[in-house]
């Protein structure tokens, strides 16, 4: 996650941890807006207008409950685009918010005790002391899975058996075909 903000946001666990950090700092609206813009971008066309209106009322309208601080030019372009919402109408605002998070909150997150604790857990994970009974129970509950290649091989064997059983093979005819090819 420390490589880039994009890596952090594409990992669900990373995004959840980042969200917790932002809540502690009372600055979760940028990430919430970024996620809402992603939902609009990848959502269904039928829900696009309703989602766009909700996003406007939540993040962009004057006095919005989770107002995001973006520059006037980007705000103007975005609000104008929302008159006729489409999948990428929030792209400029989303990019602006992403860059704000990348330059500011992401680096604060990497220096935070929250991230340092996550790093510590990743570098030295907790050992699990399962009892023998727990391990045996787990083994009993596990269903034996068959690898897809083995399934395919079994199907091929069955096909070959079915083909062999269906009609007798005239060995002389097969041999004469082979001899003609030589």
Automatic annotation (TrEMBL):
PROSITE patterns: RGS. InterPro entries: RGS (IPR016137), RGS6/7/9/11 (IPR047016), RGS_sf (IPR036305), RGS_subdomain_2 (IPR044926). One of its GO terms (cellular component) is cytoplasm. Residues 4-119 form the RGS domain. PANTHER family: LP21163P (PTHR45746), REGULATOR OF G PROTEIN-SIGNALING 9A (PTHR45746:SF8). It comes from the Eukaryota. Coiled coil: none annotated. Keywords: Signal transduction inhibitor. This is Regulator of G-protein signaling 9a. One of its GO terms (biological process) is negative regulation of signal transduction. GO terms for molecular function: GTPase activator activity.
């Amino acid at each position: 996650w420390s490589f880039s903000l994009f890596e952090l946001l594409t990992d669900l666990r990373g995004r959840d941890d980042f969200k917790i950090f932002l809540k502690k700092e009372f600055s979760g609206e940028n990430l919430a807006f970024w996620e809402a813009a992603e939902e609009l971008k990848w959502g269904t066309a039928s829900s696009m207008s309703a989602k766009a209106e909700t996003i406007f009322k939540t993040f962009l309208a004057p006095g919005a409950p989770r107002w995001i601080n973006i520059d006037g030019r980007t705000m103007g372009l975005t609000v104008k685009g929302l008159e006729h919402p489409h999948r990428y109408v929030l792209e400029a605002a989303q990019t602006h918010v992403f860059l704000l998070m990348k330059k500011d909150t992401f680096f604060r997150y990497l220096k935070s005790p929250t991230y340092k604790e996550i790093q510590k857990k990743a570098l030295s994970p907790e050992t699990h002391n399962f009892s023998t009974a727990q391990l045996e129970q787990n083994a009993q509950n596990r269903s034996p899975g068959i690898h897809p290649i083995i399934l395919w091989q079994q199907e091929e064997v069955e096909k070959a058996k079915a083909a062999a059983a269906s009609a007798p093979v005239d060995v002389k005819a097969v041999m004469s075909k082979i001899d003609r090819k030589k």
